[in-house]
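Section 3.1 - Work completed
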Amino acid sequence: MSESSDSFQDDVLAELGEDRLAEIAALAGTDTTGARALVGGSVAELSGELRQAAAEPGSADEVKAAVDEVVAQEPPLQGVAAFGGLAAGGLMAGVLAKLARPAANAVAKRTGLPPATVARAVDLLVPVVLAVLTRRAAGKKGGGLGDLLGGGKK
């Protein structure tokens, strides 16, 4: 995994906080170390799904519009409790919601955890990922998806 991907995962873990991490650990029937691994795998999978959607002709325009909306958004979301972008139904929230199921299925297959359990964990992560993307966008005006996720443009 690249350093920038780790950084994105670290940002998501920091935004998630210990209480939400403990909630995911309880949901998955594991400890916080296992929950961190589940979150890391889920974030990596969501990032990969987002990059893949950006590269596919059928979804590239939607992803670009969602990234543009996140980059233009003012002010950035503050903390997991401020789910304004998700609750408001922003484009990125919709894109992430569509990608959550395939990401959860891939993580479940790789980890052996029940798909329904992983899907619930990923659903908990979607607003956190949105908050991190929004915060990163505020600090990198004019960047694209690669800049938001780290690792350059794809």
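Second construct:
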Amino acid sequence: MLLEAFGSFLQLLYLAMVVLAVVALVFAVTAREDAYRAADKQKKSFWLIILGVTVFVNLVIPILFLQIAGVIASIVFMVDVRPAIKAVSGGGGRRGGSSSDGPYGPYNGGR
């Protein structure tokens, strides 16, 4: 019974690694090439190759060492590269505005 629970935990962990790699690859594909240069990060092609190999390794060749390296690359992309690209692209979230600010200025509730 304990081995079955451990096996299902490992399957969930494996699924989380695959989902993280696929999501990171999708974000890397959808970002603009010039945003990588403006954010002073590696080229888009570099991240596409690294994350593509990560997805391939997770789905086809489940070698633990390569999977761990892929998870680290995916985490680096999601934590470091993606926020920098998002900030350069103008999607960095609210910067000094209030929660009621709309696309054309603050919303005053019809007053």
